[in-house]
Amino acid sequence: SLAITVSIIYYANQSLIASTQTIGNETALRTADQIDAYLAQIIDQLKFLGKNISDPNLSFDTISLLTKNLLDKEPTIYQLSLADANGQKTLRLNKFATSEIQELIDSTEQDIIPSVLSGSTYISRVYISDYGLPFVTIRQAYYSPDSKPLGIITAELDLSFIWDVISRAQFKQTGYIYLVDSQGNLLAYKDIQLVK
User: What is the pTM (predicted TM-score) of this model?
Assistant: First the structure.
């Protein structure tokens, strides 16, 4: 009888653990789906911008204006830059300034240019910016009307909205979600003070 009681308690405990894990996994997947949907929306906007600026007859001012319109429309995009097919940046706009520039894409990222120009979208790892906010870089190629790669649009996204998503997500009464990078650094948690 004691063995049966212990077995029942053990089984009930294992069921509770499995149930909690399932709820936690579902909550984590829902949160991840929200983030993925948002990134997909930004990528679609970058592709749309690419179509709009692909006309070879557009002036630099018109391209700047179209790019600035996206920057103004999307509050989480902190910076947009354009580079030609060789990786030479030609325009950089952020929330505070617009500049015509002549510099190469960072040499540590030169190896992604062929992949992006062949149609892949590049999404960096999440990193903490100089402002202490989680950021991600997205690179998307844009093409001429006859499908030749013209260049790359780079968006620097402020992902601090993730803090809001994660701070609201919980399961049961004591379970919370947190986000870490591949090195185990805390990127988002219900207590933002703990994120460094």
Answer: 0.73
